[in-house]
Amino acid sequence: MSDVLLRAEGINKSFGAVIALQDVSMEVPRGEITGLVGDNGAGKSTLIKIISGVLSPDAGSIEFEGARANFASPGHARAHGVETVYQDLALVGNLTVWGNVYLGRELTHGPRFMHILDKRAMFSNARDMLTRFVQYVPPVDESVELLSGGQRQIVAIARAGAWGSKLILMDEPTAALGVAETKAVEEVILGLRGQGLTVLVISHNLDQIFRITSRIWVLRRGRIIGQRETKRTPPDEIVSMITGAASTTRSG
Prior knowledge:
This protein is of the alpha/beta class. It has helices at 44-51, 74-79, 97-101, 119-131, 149-163, 179-194, 206-212, 235-243, and strands at 4-15, 18-29, 33-37, 59-64, 67-68, 82-85, 108-109, 116-117, 167-171, 198-202, 215-220, 223-229. The strands form three sheets. Strands 6-9-10-3-11-12 form a six-stranded mixed β-sheet, with helices on both faces.
């Protein structure tokens, strides 16, 4: 694949006697939505946590934009333009939408060392930032706990898009959402790609993976089984790779 944004090489990770990842190598092309699939316990979330700096690999390396970049922390990853949307969304329910957008990045003004929050600027900026990715932005002065599940997911994804200048990692972005909310979230994800961002998404929903991705990587029992080009691959082939009925590593 040409123009690779992120490359994982020989990643290994164990938790005591449990081997979570074994010699995992994969690539994420720039400007595409790439899917990462596998059964429960395959190692998908562990790999995402290593890429995003939550965990350190026992062996192997991460390259980002052609340079070695084993991120030491999520903050280190964010500084390089990598944002992550986890299943729990990392939203604070009793904060407003704009408060969540600027969580950990608060704007201040006034005399030095006073740290007076610039609420007006954050309110205005948050609305503009989310509008880049969302056609119908939830009220930015609304508490997140009052939003629907789909609206919360949209805020989390749009927030990542607003701050992540290069790569967005997503772990089950539409879990437990209804059909209409899933469609709305998928439109936001496609909007990220339309804005030139790169997305790596974990999902158990293979219909979704086939709707939004251009390439699929399959993990099984901590190992990469192979990768396929989405439009050239039937769903049954991906299922057989996940379950172990197929073990070939042919590239699609």
